[in-house]
Design goal:
This protein is of the alpha/beta class. The chain contains 21 helices and 9 strands. A 7-stranded mixed β-sheet has the order 5-4-3-6-7-9-8, sandwiched between helices. A two-stranded antiparallel sheet has the order 1-2.
Length: 432
Amino acid sequence: MDDEVLDAGSQKDAIPFTAKLTAFHRMAETERKNPLFKDHYAKMLIGDMTKYSEEHRYSISRDGYTIARTYYIDEYLLKPWAKFHDESQIVLLGAGLDARAYRFRPLEQNSHIIFELDFPVTIQYKTKILKDEIPLCNLVRIPTDISKHQWVSQLFNNGFSKDIPSFWIMEGLLYYVPQDASIFLLKTISDLSTHSELFADVCVPPIAGLKFGPFTRHFKWGIEKEDIHGFFQHAGWNVTCAYAEEFDQGRDVGQKGMIFVHGHKSEQNNTSVSDLVRSDREYDLSRQQLQARAIILLKKSPKEIEYVLSQYRKNPEDGIEEYHCFIKEIYRNIKQFTTLFRDISDIARISPRILADPFLKREQISNWTKEELDSHIYGFLIAILQFLYCTANNLDGSEYANSSLHDLSTRNESDKLTMLSSIISFINSELK
């Protein structure tokens, strides 16, 4: 993979410059007043970049995308993965100066091992800098070139097992690898995977054609968003994808064209009866995948609901339109989430509104009072947050009845707006 390099003492210690620049961005985020994450190891790993910082202020300041990407992987993907797997392997292909093995606290839960694969010079440099630090989980570094197939045997020789669920992370990798080689890489890790997931980020063709700055000047290829599903499925992965700006956390992630891809291993289906019956393990993974999606929505929804409420206060007609847009999008997922519960009565114990029609018809509300309209809108927004909370935290109806959120909700039953505001505050504090 072509890249700029930055000397780390001597030419033989030269490591990819983009790895150092990405770590510099993580260091800068850590030093902010309210950082999205803290990586205290980044400062150790970047070395002296004073001169570059002075000469390339534009590149230094353009950190929104790398920060949003790191936060997305940590909070939306790896946190639920670490929580729901008793044992797992996390494989960082092109690990660069990533320090998750030391800083990402959810790795202390259960039993996880991280495999870091990168060029020998990067692995040697990183091992030397962090030699006195203690990782939070088992850590194996493998000096290799992932453009050569020998990395597979090296991975197995260092303890990798096909029988253990694996999460493959290709953070800032695929668009540097030629398209044919990317397909081969994806097929390879599919062959190595059982009940596994992946993260990769890709870009649309115009971004790949920019050839500007320390990052895009080395991009090899791009792909249109509507083609991503078929591309990854051909390589053995079922994926969902979203533009980075949908998870930007208020940061400037640049032009609309960088895409986050989250995939699950595609299983080949035969027509035999035994293959049509899902094992308990497969059911658990289906549940885990839906819960991971619920966590994503639980993080996004409070902010979106607050926007709906602000529009509704300013102008009820505009607010109703925003409410409908929000409902239309979220109920696509809620329909899937209902499959995780035993029966309708279990869902109703959380909120019977989830089973009702959330949409407002003009003829329906023409004779409603403002109080009735408020009750409908606030009530459904409350129900959505309650339901997402239970799905994300694997709570059934009876468990929800004994939860802090239920207690909070019952204390404000007479004032739905107060209840909704309290629930939003509760969820935001829980997710910090």
